[in-house]
Amino acid sequence: MGDGSIAPRFGNARAFLGIVAGAGASYGLYKLLSGGGFKRNKKSAANESPGVRRSESSEAPLPPGSLLARVSGLDVVAPRPVDAASGEITQQSSGNLDPQHLKMLLSCLKTSSNPSERCRMLLTLGNSAAFTVNQNLIRDFEGIHIIAGFLSDPLAEVRVQTLNALNNLCMNIQNQEQIKVYVPQVLELIEMSSVNSDPQLAALRLLTNLSVTDKHQHLLKKSITLLLSLLVVSKEALQIQASKVLVNLSSNPDMMDDIVQAQTPASVVLLFDSRTATAVLLRLLTFAGNLKAWRASAQVADELRRTQDCLFRVMLDESSQLHSRLVQLLSHPDVEIQSQVARILT
Predict the structure, then answer these.
(1) Alpha-carbon gap, residue 231 to 247, rounded angstroms
(2) Gap between the Cα atoms of 134 and 213, Å rounded
(3) How much is the pTM?
């Protein structure tokens, strides 16, 4: 647990570890698509509305055995619907900790050798970070770097609570300047974790929040292929989160050149189907609408056609199946899906 000087403080820490833990998983406090969090600029405000753009790309070669290589030829299994409210968390009103409590927690967290204690402290810190005053205090106490140090913890639950805490801290624009340093590590965590695992989902939530505005989207340029591949192989919860990041990126015209060059599983277009969960399909249509708003010169289009498996060829080229699949969706029972499809096609 640490040396003798820390042990008494740990006893005090245990007494208030649960002060705000009742708020549940901390990431649920930040509702990007329901108006929560900080205000977005005009470009990023349309996380779900067609015609707004943002972008991302991955130009790496396709190594044998890579995730993309495994999923490129797969058919898409329609995900089963889940409770749409399952990720909603109600904020508890009594969550503020005194500054000395936050300091104590961070000090104990640094020296703890008990995984269970680390999880409880990270949960409490994450829930306390739902409050602006605590977001600032944790940053001032160098807490962001202390918390981020557990991204590589051997225990998956510790990594999840670390990501959840960073996710709430990311609601603060100043905190994003420190959190952005850990984007490569977060992307690696997504790549190394099991598909549909809690660490993957928590990591994607963090990237969603970090990509709400244009400022840090360039850090995700190498993640487009990963995100598109996850769409193909994952279940609904992960598909929703991956598509949120793609919508954010494709809403930025400055990212579009990177997006259209990204290597893309051919089976992505199969998700544009009435069997795909509505929540996923709506976001995919927003992504497609953002892509359709991009216009390439004849020279650029010819160059992209010569690039094997790039997004342009899979989704935007005349040879793509996307257009015919969109036409079929005009008869989808959901009115909002019909409306989005009609706007894309016209």
Answers:
(1) 13
(2) 22
(3) 0.74
